[in-house]
Structure formats: structure tokens, C-alpha cells
Amino acid sequence: MSATAKGLLFRAGTEGLALADLDLDDPRPREVIVRVHAAGICHSDVHFMEGRNAAQARGLYGLSLDHRMQPGMCERRQEEAEASLLVMGHEPAGIVEAVGSAVTRLRPGDRVIGAGTSACGACLQCVRGWPHLCLELPRRHPGEVPRLRSGGERVTQFANLGAFAERMLVHETSLVRIGEDVPFASAAILGCSIATGVGAALNTARVAPGASVAVFGAGGIGLSVVQGARIAGASMIIVVDVTDAKLDRALKFGATHTVNSAGTDPVAAVKDLTLGAGVEYSFDTTAVPAAAQASFDCLALRGVLTCLATPPADLRSIVGTERVVRGSTLGSTRIQDDLPRYLELYRQGRLLLDEMISLELPPGGFTQAVSELAAGHVARAVLRFDAGTASAI
User: Fold this and answer.
1) Which of 268, 272, 266 is nearest to 286 (CA)?
2) For residue range 223-282, what is the model confidence (pLDDT) as tens digits?
3) Listed residue (73, 140, 94, 66) closest to 382, CA to CA
4) pTM for this prediction
5) Distance from C-alpha of 11 to C-alpha of 18, rounded to nearest angstrom
6) Could you give the number of structural domains in the chain?
7) Is residue 237 part of a domain?
8) Given this model, what pLDDT does residue 391 score?
9) Are residues 245 and 111 part of one domain?
10) Are residues 284 and 378 in the same domain?
11) Fewer beta carbons below 10 Å: N end or C end of the chain?
12) Is the domain of 114 the same as that of 242?
């Protein structure tokens, strides 16, 4: 083994995460070892852990996939579903420590961020310019020597990353080099929260200047959609949530109107704000079926709904209204192209990253961070590994 690290491991059937020692294999030709400095906490981490211990999976992990259509993603999800031990986390930022013999794009000392995708560069989707939908997803398969072990036991990397650890061993196409001018905590959330939300607005839906937009859910992803719609030039951005504190926070990121749906019909409220017309674009980020349905029902004629977690169940009006329903994976993000552009927007002050980070904690604060997220007290929480994991617990 070439390196060791401490990481937060999830064992199926247990609650929470436990700090453990990890052994990393030597990098293969296109693999890279990264010393993690910060890792964002996403609801997908929590939903996955809850789903492994319950009969019903939530969010993205509750949606079915077609193995013939997405073989690589299906195999990765199946491995995660069957693994007894996983290192969680998929929003990392850190510094390259070692590279494989065929890696030419990165070198030791580079500052990088990671995303939960990898690309072969040769499959139909990669060739067509959509590497986030790669059919192969380069990784180490279950029959191969694992990248990670703990106490001799195979450890699976969640989202092919496993960011809740002092070090990661990952495929080079999961990493994007960044400059010295962005803090690690702010940079970390680019690989999921920002990519998914901003990308959904700019890449998937392609919000038009002057358009009206409704965003259901004011968590980290929802706020990122709000920012994407603002950057695109939307004239009205309505945010719907059940928590006043989250709605107040959304105003700081570009929302023009808010609706608390805890005691209000959100569809009626959105239509009232748009003088009965409905919005031209809506986004559901909640993984709540009722919210997904409302995000469809509030659309204008020929309006476009972009689903980031759960689709609506009733589409009976779709023919007569010419509404469009689209799915979005990682915001249709080409990470090597889009993430550097988002960083430039950050440098210009048009994309708020520092303001998205409400809480930074050592690895031992994971449970506290999840509680704060669930209560809506924070937009995004980040675990810091650069102060020394063992001493920070």
C-alpha cells in the first residue's frame, strides 16, 4: 500500500459514521492521490445512508436506472448498494500528492476539486460532449484490487470518490485543477451543489434572460439554482420552501419572491405572482413528491420543469399545455469546462461561494452538521481535514 489515511466510514446496518484507518493502493496509470482539505456534506450522502438502513431509498437513490442504457452508473450504484463498508462524501477539495504514470494533466502540488463522475472519453455520450453521462465511468470494479482497505476489508468509495477522508485515490477525470485564490471550503461545493444547481439553470434548462422562474427547495442545491437563474438574467425568481429562515436566506442569493408552502398552496401563490400565467421555468430540488407535482402544476403554457430529484406523478395536462419535463444529472455539467467558468464568475463576484458555507467543522462534527442541515439552519456544511483529522475528533 502506498499511503494511509483516516476516514469516516459507514457500515451498512449501523447509524452514523466511524473514524477508521484506511490503506490506499498504489495509483494505477490514470489515478491520483489527493490530500483532502475540505469536503462538503450533501443530502445525497444522508439519503444513501438512510436508504441502506430502510426499506425505501430517497432522492436520487430512490430512482430506477436501466442497465442497458447506463451500464456504468448501474454497476456503480449496485456496488454501493451491496457494499458493507463505504467511505462517504463527494464534494472534496485538496492538493494532489501523487499521480499515476499516464496522468499528464495534473501534477503533485496542484490544488483540485472533485466531482462524483468520471469519463472514459470514448463512449457515445463522451464523444457527443456529455461526459457526465459516460457509459463506462472508469473505476475499479468489484473483482479488481480495491483502491481502499480498512483492517484488510474492502472499502467502497461513495460516488467513486470517498471524500470524507484525509486522502482519496481517484480517477484523474474526476478532478479539476483550481487556482490559489479560492478557499478550499468554498471550492469543495463546486463539484456537486454548485455544479448541480447552477448547471441545471444554465445547461439543462437554459433559462432565458427576462424569464420567470420558480425553485422548490431552498437548500444548497436550490440556492445554487437560484444563483444560476440570476446569472442567466431571470427577471422573477420565486423560491418555495417550508422554512422562513431558508426563504430569507434565498433572498440574499437572488430570489425576488418567496412562498412558504407550509400554510399556503404554492401553485396558487406562484400563479398569483405571475398574474395567473405561471412560470416559464420551474425546478424541483426537494425529493418530495408533492413538491415535484407542484413544480409542474405551476408552469405556464410551454413551460419547462427540470427535475433534480423526483419527477411529478401526474402529467395529464402535458399535451394540452405543451409543458416540458426534463431530468438533470449533475446539472448537465462538463466539469473540465464548466467548473473553471464558474470559478471565473466567483472571481467577478457574480457567483457566491463563500456565502454558501454556513458551517465548518472537524470530521467529528458530521452528526452535528447533518442535524443543522435538516433543521434548515445552514446552506452548506463542510468538514475540514486539513487541521489533522485525529486531533480534530
Assistant:
1) 266
2) 999 999 999 999 999 999 999 999 999 999 999 999 999 989 999 999 999 999 999 999
3) 94
4) 0.94
5) 8
6) 2
7) yes
8) 41
9) no
10) no
11) N
12) no
The C-alpha atoms of residue 19 and residue 331 are separated, in whole angstroms, by 32
User: The CATH number of the domain where 56 resides is what?
Assistant: 3.90.180.10
- Measured CA to CA in angstroms, residue 242 lies from 35, 115, 375 at distances of 38, 29, 11
Query: Distance between CA 120 and CA 139 in Å, rounded?
Result: 10
| Angle ∠(225,215,377) on CA atoms, nearest 5 | 80
Q: Do 271 and 277 touch, CB atoms closer than 8 A?
A: yes
Q: Angle at the Cα of 314 (from 278 to 227), degrees rounded to 5?
A: 45
Give residue 206's domain range. Answer: 197-328
According to the 3-state scheme, what is the secondary structure of the chain? CCEEEEEEEEECCCCCCEEEEEEECCCCCCEEEEEEEEEEECHHHHHHHHHHCCCCCCHHHHCCCCCCCCHHHHHHHHHHHHCCEEECCCCEEEEEEEECCCCCCCCCCCEEEECCCCCCCCCHHHHCCCHHHCCCCCCCCCCCCCCEEECCEEEEEHHHCCCCECEEEEEHHHEEEECCCCCHHHHHHHHCHHHHHHHHHHHHCCCCCCCEEEEECCCHHHHHHHHHHHHHCCCEEEEEECCHHHHHHHHHHCCCEEEECCCCCHHHHHHHHCCCCCEEEEEECCCCHHHHHHHHHCEEEEEEEEECCCCCCCCCCHHHHCCEEEECCHHHCCHHHHHHHHHHHHHCCCCCCHHHEEEEECHHHHHHHHHHHHCCCCCEEEEECCCCHHHHC
How far, CA to CA in Å, does 79 sit from each of 136, 157, 158, 303? 14, 10, 9, 38
| CA atoms within 13 Å, Cβ hemisphere of 299 | 28
Q: For residue range 198-219, list pLDDT tens digits in order.
A: 999 999 999 999 999 999 999 9
